[in-house]
Amino acid sequence: MKVRRRLAVKIGSIPWMPRFLPQIVKGDNAIQSVTGHRTTLLDIADLPNITIKVPGRKSGITRTTQLLAVPDGEDWLIAGSYFGGPKMPAWVFNLRAAGTIEIVVSGESCAAEATELFDEEREAAWHKLRAIWPNFDLYEQRTERKIPVFRLHPHPAAEPKDQPGPAS
């Protein structure tokens, strides 16, 4: 494991760290703003990540969230852990309502289908998530809620439609 990732795991395991999540998010937003959205706190920590863009289930306004995400073939795995806090992250409810969302990976945007995983599929994905971020185990212990796990399956880029040629 890389040095910065080891340090991030250590910091993420501090029991009082969840209280500072709003400040962490503000700091991450500042980093993204200064770097023209090319770098995030997760990038600095050498952690794989994606941005999800999901319409709010009530407002319809697109909400953007940067998440630790684990690649799984062409798909991505994400967890609604919120540092093991008692409340479910709002993006989880929006994702459940949306089904199809937009994801941004390394600056490339595409549509993706979001599927919540259950039973054996969830356990297999949870194992892959924990391999990258061992603190998911701590988060599971900190909360009474079942942390949701999702698979994001990117849609292939749409083929350009044939344009009619000039009339002869």
From TrEMBL:
State one molecular function term (GO).
coenzyme F420 binding
A GO CC annotation recorded here is: plasma membrane
Q: Which reaction does it catalyse?
A: oxidized coenzyme F420-(gamma-L-Glu)(n) + a quinol + H(+) = reduced coenzyme F420-(gamma-L-Glu)(n) + a quinone
Record's protein name: Nitroreductase family deazaflavin-dependent oxidoreductase
Q: Name one Pfam family in it.
A: F420H2_quin_red
What InterPro entries would the database entry show?
A: F420H2_quin_Rdtase, Split_barrel_FMN-bd
Into which family does the record put it?
Belongs to the F420H(2)-dependent quinone reductase family.
- Record organism: Gordonia jinghuaiqii
Q: Coiled-coil ranges per the record?
A: none
Q: Which Gene3D superfamilies match?
A: Electron Transport, Fmn-binding Protein, Chain A (2.30.110.10)
Q: In which domain of life is the source organism classified?
A: Bacteria
